[in-house]
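Methods: example folding runs. The two proteins below were folded one after another, and each record is reproduced exactly as written to the output file, sequence line first and structure-token line second.
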Amino acid sequence: MDVNDTPRHRIGLTEAAIHLFAIAAVLALWEYASRQGWLNPLFFGRPSKIWAFLVGGFWEGPKLWIELGYTLLGTFFAFTLGALAAMLTGLLFVIFPAFDRAAQPYLTFLNAIPRIALAPLFMLWFGIGLGSKIAVGFSLTFFIVLAATVAGIRGVSGDTITLARSLGVSGGRIFFTITIPSAIPVIFSGLRLGLIYAMLGVVGAEIFASQHGLGQVLTFLQANFDTSGTLGILFVLAILGLAVTSLMSWLERHLLKWQ
């Protein structure tokens, strides 16, 4: 084992311990202030009640697991479809620049429309089920990944491509062995951001109107002034966002080991 691994490991453990201590201190102070009446639980909630809500929803019954499943399913389809469509469109734009120039004004116009404002139309077209949530998430993911795909491919070094051509490498081989691999880091940055926005779009559409999903649970809790439950769902969404971002970062590191 590398002698440098041990100090690095110890530093990581120390930083984790500091973070845990800081979080525990904030929660303890929050709980104490709530019990003393310094903070009104109706407006700020209480950590013990948040914990009780999460335990009841995840450990004592399947309700929150079911709602979480609907949100994850919508996010998966919205991200997958949006990312694939965006990358294919980005490739077409690079291969056919005239098509890119013709489409840019329309794409800019569509991208300027607030997607949450389109939620009522999506629900009219696709219903209040999973389809409208996927449509909102798709619309957010598409433009982010499209911009990253085009930027990544066009950012490849022209000198490298010129050198390959001078050595007699075919255009197709240059594209698949030089252009695409060089563009992957930028594309992955767009994919990582697109995944977060896909989840935000799905949850936002669930908040607007839905039969299932964490967003629908959030709306119900807010309507009943259950601040602790609302904060519990927000905590779950934050952890979910951190998890999907970490997953994409891990996948990027493992796929780009060659760099």
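Second run, written to the same file directly after the first:
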Amino acid sequence: MSTLAGPTETFDCRVAFAEELIALAEQDERIVAVCNDSVGSSNLVGFRDRFPDRLINVGIAEQDMVGVGAGLALSGYVPFVCGAAPFLTGRALEQIKADVAYSQAPVVLCGMSPGMAYGELGPTHHSIEDLSWLRAVAGLGIVAPADPAQTREAVRWAASAGTPVFLRVGRFKVPAVTPPGVAFEFGVAQELRSGDAVTIVATGSMVSRALQAAEILADEGIGARVINMATIAPLDEECVLRAVRQTRGIVTVEEATITGGLGAAVGEINLRQARPVPMRMLGSPRQFAPTGDTAFLLKHFGLTAEGIAAAGRELA
């Protein structure tokens, strides 16, 4: 069982991503990085300095960036294609579909600073639709690590997977939530806390907040199970089915729109059952988020420990 009581140190997952990428590149000369004039924001400065001939900066040309990545992958390289998530996924969706997923080019698409991490820059820079439209693309894995340890493991897995994958690398700092000795396994969710009243299924930056919500509910005598659903596609269907069978309701939490994202994926499984359980899907509704810093936006949409606990309380 994981807990987050009291003051907790937080970490930038982009740092873990960059350190692990450099460590892997030290061992495997096939690993290259491709970016869209985002060396700084993708945290690739260290990689560039260590491997100047293995970083390809295409400039602000995301469609070219993904195409170059696909070509490198099909030529035997292991490309990590990095860019701010809204521009990587929005501008280059056709290339992600045709050049990467349809062609099964083993590209690691790294969506940096997803969700509402760019806060004050507004809806043009918020990446709340990425999970939704990428879930609709066949043959593409989607992974959203919850903390630095899981980010490192996901990077290692992606480098050797030999399959197209979108890796969602968070910007704002989060605490460590992965228990010692618990390894990342693609397509398999992690149960971080047991409970038989309600299940909270969270992904990425929302996992730590789900654990905090579970502590609030525990103080009220409500047992909340917390699931870290790091892999969005393919979803761990058996984990969802256990929640349907063993708890009275499911709350999903994502730093993304609820239209077609994690909540929708869980809901599709739930609704196929003979006796589906009630659900609450927390995230951004189908609207552009207002402009404000990340903390303001998350509070605005109820993506806080208190907001998650309130949803769980309704179903317990």
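Comment on the second run: The chain has a mean pLDDT of 95.
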